[in-house]
Amino acid sequence: MMMTYDINQSLRLTASGQISKGLTNSNDFTSPLNTKFDGLENAKKGNLIHSEASAFSFTTNAMLTYFRTFRTNHSLTANLRGEISESRNSINGYTAVGFPAASNGNQILLLDS
Q: Distance (Å, rounded) from C-alpha 74 to C-alpha 87?
């Protein structure tokens, strides 16, 4: 987004900004019945690899411009500019190993009442 405002004939303010956010999730489940687990003990059969990442960033800036023409062939231009930006990223992941033979990778939460 960008904004331009002419304060008067010689003074102009220009400002812009940008915001970005992203989120990704990944689950890779391998059934304990998969043949790559043949020969392993039951407690090591099956795995779930989970990962998630998030990102957030913003940038904003402003510029003040002074422009003046003297006589007919002389000009003066001066700019004052500032910018602020930030970027935050986080990654979280884990691997779980050992699923019951009938498991399909869905998480089941059992609550005692």
A: 43
